[in-house]
Structure formats: C-alpha cells, structure tokens
Amino acid sequence: MLHFLQRCFQVPSKMVCLQILLQPRSRAACSFAPLQCSLPGMSKSQLHISAGLNRVQCFHSSCCNWKKKKPPEPALRELGLLRYDMGSLKDSPKPALYLSVAGLIPFVSVPLVMAIQETSYPELAFAQIAYGASVVSFFGGIRWGFALPEGSPAKPDWLNLSNSIVPPILAWLALLLKDGLMEAGTTVIIGLGIALHYDLSLLPTYPSWFKALRAIVTIVAVGSLVATLYIVSIYPEKHLAPASNKVED
C-alpha cells in the first residue's frame, strides 16, 4: 500500500519541482530550492540537475538589468546654412559663379577705398547704395521670370508674382532716400534680406547651387553696406573733386 501511494505522488512532485524552477526567485530562495525539490521518488542525479538549474536561473535573474542594451544614439545630422547645402556650390556653372563674383566688386571696393583713405565720400557711398538697389530689383525679376515659363515648378500665382514685386519697391524707396545715406542703405539691406528669404523658403525649387550662391552674394553685399554706413558715421566727410572746372571769362 505504501509503495502504491509513493508511485501515485511521484509525478505531481516532479511537476511541483519543475514549477518552482521556472519561477523567478531571489538568491535566498535559490539557495533553498534543492531542499524544496528533494521529494520522495527523485534520485541524487536529479537533485544535482535541479540545483544546477537553480544556480543558473538565480545568476540570470540577478544580472538581467545589467545586460540591457542602451538604445542607439541618433546619427548626427550635418548642419546646413538655412535650407540649402553649401557643398553644392562646387556644382555651380562657371558663368554664373564668375559673374556673381565679379558683381561683388562694386560692393567691396567702396568701403575698402574709404577705409584706406580714412575718409567718407558721400558720392561713393550713394553709388554703392544705388548699385545695391539695382541688385535687389534684379533678384525680384529672377523670381518673376522663373514662374512664367510653361512647365516651371513655380506657378504664376498671386504669391509668387506679388512677392517678386516687393524687392523692386524697396529698391525704389532706397533711391528716393538719397539725401539720407543711413536710411537708404538700411532699406537696401532690408531688401536683400527679404529677397533671400523669398528665394530660400517660399520657392524651394531653385537648384541647390543657386541657393548657395545667392546666400554668399547676399552676405557679402550686406556686409559691405554695413561697413560703408559705419565708415560714413565715424570718418570725416569729403566730396569728390569735380571732373572738369568751368573756365571763367
């Protein structure tokens, strides 16, 4: 009768031991696991196997938090200037690149001459401002001409055509303020900034090389105008000599 009861309770005892092995426990519980599994009907080899499994499980449960992998850091994105890639400047057509560089000579030469002589010439300053006003009008015309051809990505709608008129109006106002160099120069600087904003944000279909070239031209032009206005404000004023003198009778 005792042997029959032992055979009946042998299978449930193994199932209970397997359930205990699969449950996560602390180190203290793992140390007493072999005693819990030492039920009647289990041999010594089975007890050694259960003890080894308990040790492996205890080690895994204690170190699982240490082995968590950190999420990969996002790749660093290269910072561009506004919304275009300055690296595409090398793709500029040579005629556009050379003509743009040559067009910066009137901007740079005026403050350079006045700084070398440490004298402000109102005629040269106004000539630079007038040239800047013509450049602002030219930028507005580029936008108008880009929207008119058939198949152009820019539509000839109110937004594109109206924005292309704003730079010429600012250039016209700058020429009306010829008696005040500071006001006229500031108006041209505002016109250059607005034209650049239109070309970079409102019409992103321009080629990347053109956007980069536009940014460089605008930065140099604005810097030259600011230098001229600064020289006019700190250096003594001197008018240029007339080209020819009238002969008195």
Give a brief outline of the structure.
This protein is mainly α and 249 residues long. The protein has two domains: 14-62, no CATH class; 86-234, no CATH class. The chain has eleven helices and no strands.
For this entry, give a set of tags.
0% strand; 2 domains; mainly alpha; 249 residues; 11 helices
Explain the overall architecture.
This protein has 249 residues and is an all-alpha fold. It has 2 domains: 14-62, no CATH class; 86-234, no CATH class. Helices cover 67% and strands 0% of the residues. The chain has 11 helices and no strands. The protein has helices at residues 2-8, 10-22, 27-31, 33-37, 44-63, 94-103, 105-117, 122-147, 158-176, 181-202, 208-234. The radius of gyration is 41 Å and the shape is globular.
List strands and helices in order, with pairings.
Blueprint: H1 2-8, H2 10-22, H3 27-31, H4 33-37, H5 44-63, H6 94-103, H7 105-117, H8 122-147, H9 158-176, H10 181-202, H11 208-234
Helix pairs in contact: 2-5, 7-8, 7-11, 8-9, 8-10, 8-11, 9-10, 10-11
The profile of the biggest β sheet is:
none
- On the 0 to 100 scale, the average pLDDT is 74
Report low-confidence residues grouped into runs of 5 or more. Answer: 26-39, 56-66, 73-82
So what's the overall shape?
Answer: globular
Terminal CA distance reads: 155 Å
Number of helices: 11
Number of strands: 0
Query: What percentage of residues falls in helices of 4 or more residues?
Result: 55-70%
Q: Quaternary state, please?
A: single chain
State Rg. Answer: 41 Å
> What fraction of the residues are assigned to beta strands by DSSP?
under 5%
Overall structural domain count: 2
Q: Structural class from helices and strands?
A: mainly alpha
Order of helices and strands: HHHHHHHHHHH
